[in-house]
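input
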Amino acid sequence: MSAESLPITPVAFAEAIKELTLPVLYAKVAELQNSIAHLRRSNQELRHFISESCESQADREELEGYIAENDGVEKSMIERIELCKAEVERRGQTWIELGADANGTTSTEGEGEQGQGQPAREDSTASASMNGTSSNTEAHPAERLRDRDNDGEDDGLYL
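output
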């Protein structure tokens, strides 16, 4: 990580998301869940490489350092998901899970355990009516939310 580019603090993140619409909040959560899934896959691959192919102790220690850094980033992302949930509930709305638990764990449809980073599909009609969107398409709820709020203009806020 560059010393010049630091991630936004949790306090600043919580303040910034107050300005976002509900669809954008849910899109942010979907983005964070996707990032968590990629971090977990990366760590799994690094662990496999360490156990199967890593020859030198120095390389092993360096890779374990990357795994630890990824774990820290994942915890930060989980905290941001919780902040988004708290913001939705602060507005008096009911939080709707987008196929992942608060820890960023996603499951595939019909699968009760952790999946391979694929969010579970929800009933399109039920989730659309619950989150204020309506669509006859079979797009994932997060995709519909993101598309609805994307009017081609850059709001200038990227979290």
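quick obs: Residues 10-91 form one domain.
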